[in-house]
Write a structure and sequence with these properties.
alpha/beta, Rossmann fold, 2 domains, nine-stranded mixed β-sheet, 6 helices, globular
C-alpha cells in the first residue's frame, strides 16, 4: 500500500477528491495533509475526512525558502510518504526539495500544459481566443509546471465565458482527473490519462514514453 501526503494552501477540494477515492482496492492511502496556511479550509476538511494534518507556516520563515522546505521535510519524513500530491499548494518548490523527493511529487495545474504555466490560466485562455481549456496532472520538476505529463482533461470554452465560470467547469474535471492519475501512478503506471474519450493529448504536452490511455 502506497502512502500519500497531500500539500494544500486553500480549500482543499482536490485533496478531498483524492482522499475520498483512496478506499477499497485503491493501491494508496492518505497519511498526511500538510498546509503552509494555518487557517486553510483544507485542514478542516481533512480532519473531517479523518486524515492527520500538520502546518508549516511559510510566513514564519521570512522568505527563507530553504528553511521553510527543511521544516516541510521534518513534517513529511515521519509520515514516510511514497507519493506527495500538491493540491493548490501555492509555494514554488526549490530544486533541492524536488530532488529530495524526486519522482514522488505530483501536481495538478489548471491549463493544458505547456500552455499557460503559472497563474491566471483561465483569463489567459479566454483572452487568447482559445476554444478549449482544461487541466494537467504532471510530475514536479525543478522547472515551473514543466514535468512529465501524467494526464490531461479538456473543457470547452463557451461563448461569453468568464474566468470564474470556466474555472468552475475545469475544477469539476480536476476532481475526476487527479484521482484517476494517482490510482495509476500508485500502481507504478506512469502512462498518461486523457479525458474525455477519444480526444488526443494537447499538442506540445510531454508525456512519458508510452501510448497513454483515453478514458
Amino acid at each position: 500500500m502506497r502512502r500519500v501526503a497531500i500539500l494544500v494552501s486553500g480549500r482543499g477540494s482536490n485533496m478531498a477528491a483524492l482522499v475520498r477515492d483512496m478506499v477499497g482496492n485503491h493501491p494508496a492511502r492518505p497519511v498526511l495533509v500538510l498546509s503552509n496556511v494555518p487557517d486553510a479550509k483544507g485542514l478542516r476538511l481533512a480532519k473531517e475526512l479523518h486524515v492527520e494534518t500538520a502546518v508549516v507556516n511559510h510566513r514564519e520563515f521570512r522568505g527563507d525558502r530553504a528553511a521553510f522546505e527543511a521544516a516541510l521535510t521534518v513534517r513529511l519524513e515521519p509520515a514516510r510518504p511514497d507519493i506527495i500530491c500538491l493540491c493548490g499548494f501555492m509555494r514554488i518548490l526549490t530544486a533541492a526539495f524536488v530532488e529530495r523527493w524526486s519522482g514522488r511529487i505530483l501536481n495538478i495545474h489548471p491549463s493544458l500544459l505547456p500552455k499557460y504555466p503559472g497563474l491566471d490560466t483561465h483569463a489567459r485562455a479566454i483572452a487568447a481566443g482559445d476554444d478549449e481549456a482544461g487541466c494537467t496532472v504532471h510530475e514536479v520538476s525543478d522547472e515551473l509546471d514543466a514535468g512529465p505529463v501524467l494526464g490531461q482533461a479538456r473543457v470547452p470554452i463557451n461563448t461569453g465565458d468568464t474566468s470564474d465560470a470556466l474555472a468552475a467547469r475545469v475544477l469539476t474535471a480536476e476532481h475526476k482527473l487527479y484521482p484517476a492519475v494517482l490510482r495509476r501512478f500508485a500502481n507504478g503506471d506512469r502512462s498518461p490519462v486523457y479525458f474525455p474519450e477519444k480526444i488526443a493529448p494537447h499538442v506540445g504536452a510531454n508525456p512519458e514514453p508510452g501510448s497513454g490511455t483515453l478514458l
